[in-house]
Amino acid sequence: MIRLVGAAMTGLACAYTGIRLRMNLRKRVESLADIRASLELLEGEINFSVNKLKTAFTRADRNGLFALAGEKIDTLGADMAWRAALDEMKTRLCLTDADADILKTLGARLGRTDTDDQIKNIRYVKTLAARCEEESRAEYERFAKLYSSGGILIGLFIVIMLI
Amino acid sequence: MNVDLIFQIAGVGIIVAVLNQLLTRAGREEQALLTTLAGLVVVLFIVTQQIGELFDTVKSIFNL
After folding, report:
1. Which domain holds residue B9?
2. Residue A90 within any structural domain of the chain
3. Which of A30, A156, B28, B50 is least crowded, fewest Cβ atoms below 10 Å from its Cβ?
């Protein structure tokens, strides 16, 4: 009886790990889509509403990243606040190091140059984010099934070897 | 003869075959090959233990 329970728990743990990896891939796609939408909103906020950066960040927020950066702007400044928020939220949003490095380029010109230059920079980062999103979507389509099925199969393999 | 052993080896074979297919379709041919090799090594490990027992039995029968 205890052997069966142990086998079931091992199998379930492996299956859960696989499904979790699949969910992380999905979360990355969603996060990048949200960030792209937020950049769109931020562009509008800077271009038309002429709000302060803190307000613009808070209003453009979709997944907590921009709101967190907005909270830190007063103490750290735009660039450092954006970098700190990215570092803090990177794991929660399932972003890769490459994604974070690309997004960090947004902070370089925020609040330092004129509106046109900032808009150009936001559009540039938006293009890069769109590319990352496409890449993550392709990765999801390629590996989602592999991770979930692989987890279950590896669990079964361990159970067969142990029983 | 231990029938469980045959089922165990068959199970490993089926799982390795499915994993191999999954990895190949995901474009990870190298990992698919590694999985197949790992399955082979595991099965060989199980089989060599049985062959060792067979040799011991033969030796004891003939008092070698």
Report:
1. 3-61
2. yes
3. B50
